[in-house]
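Extended Data, panel c. Modelled sequence:
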Amino acid sequence: MELIEEFAKYLDHLSAGLGRSERKVGLTDYCRALMLPLKRKSFEPLAAAVDPAHVPARHQSLQHFVADSPWSDEAVLGKVQSWVLPRMLSEHKGWVFLIADDTGMPKAGTHSVGVARQYCGQLGKTDNCQVAVSLSIATAQASLPIKYRLYLPKAWTDDRTRCEQVGVPQEVAFLTKPQISLLQLRQAKDAGLPGDVVAADAGYGDDTDYRDGITELGLLYVLGIKPGTTVWAEGTGPLPPKPWSGRGIKPTKLRRDGKHQPLSVKQLAMSLPPSAYRKLTWREGTNTKLSSRFAAVRVAAAHRDYLSDAPRQQEWLLIEWPKGEPEPTKYFLSTLPADISRTQLVDAVKSRWRIERDYQELKQQFGLDNFEGRNWRGFHHHASLCVAAYGFLIAQRLAHGQDTKKNSFFRAQPSLPEGNIPRGANPSSAPRPQFDSNPALVHRRRARSSADGLPSARKQ
């Protein structure tokens, strides 16, 4: 009972960000259903879980609340943050990480907002999907998604008619994923949210403008880069500007020649002696300790420095080369302090594992990828409510331990009334009892007569 009362207090807290009191019912119903152990969390099974006696009506009301009602995602996520972040930071010491990433959700058809053939991490290949860029705040104890925005490929932003059909706001223009992420970081900074170090993979870190933008925001970073990224090893660098002859415009740009060229990080890594690599363990995995070999050297990024009048500042290049691999597998650039230990640097780089866990739980337990609507507002509203439900789980874990399981909160599932007719079914069709491990979804399955005309087996 204490847990149910705490969840009710949490929902009351979130409802203050909705703007209108009647929207509290929609938020309460949706979040309660997301906490249930349903196999799928799209509108109809959620409606069946909330109100099995009036599934069509509840389906319609939930759909209106998520897909049409103009409440603010930022306001609701802000209420989640004000509940969870104090609990995350109360005993935390050290850096607070801002983890940037994106996630793909397979999607059939061509009409849902943002759907296109693009790389989908969930599938590990290019396929039809939607992709959203997110930002999470992470400490050693927990992590919480704070920003979530759909990525629109140029094929979408160049077609305003198509965008209007799914409610994409007029001001939304094409942005790359690193540009969306940098905007999210700026918004988090402007809102006064905590965060010291940005962590992201090579899809973001290989973008020089992204790295520079983070530095301009006053933040540090640990970012993956690709093997071809060029750097100046310690003790090397571009040539100074040409001497001025006294006539014409005075040269100010750095130079390169045949003897002064940067190296790719892969070339630099392969040139290091074996003694430069040291085995380090960063955390306990599911079955064993996670460890690898790492080298850390000081470098200066070389990207188009010949267009600049001053070389870039030195930073860390961290190289991961697992034992038995023919070459290094991962590379990272970091602006963490020059006197940091290699162990601390590795710990910072490996902080990204939390975002992977977030995505796994948001999809598997809260149905982040189960939204069946097509419009921009519904896509983001559904994600905000999934994060809201997840936020309560995070808070409970912080209070009661990391072993807290979401499905242990609300196990009871309502049963559908006998004779319930699913949406779109023939009213004259008499339903037959059948085996079904998820009672809240029974109404979606059409009854089938057994081959010999005998009644189908009843669930015991």
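Residues 411-417, 423-460 have pLDDT under 50 and may be disordered. This feature is highlighted in the accompanying rendering.
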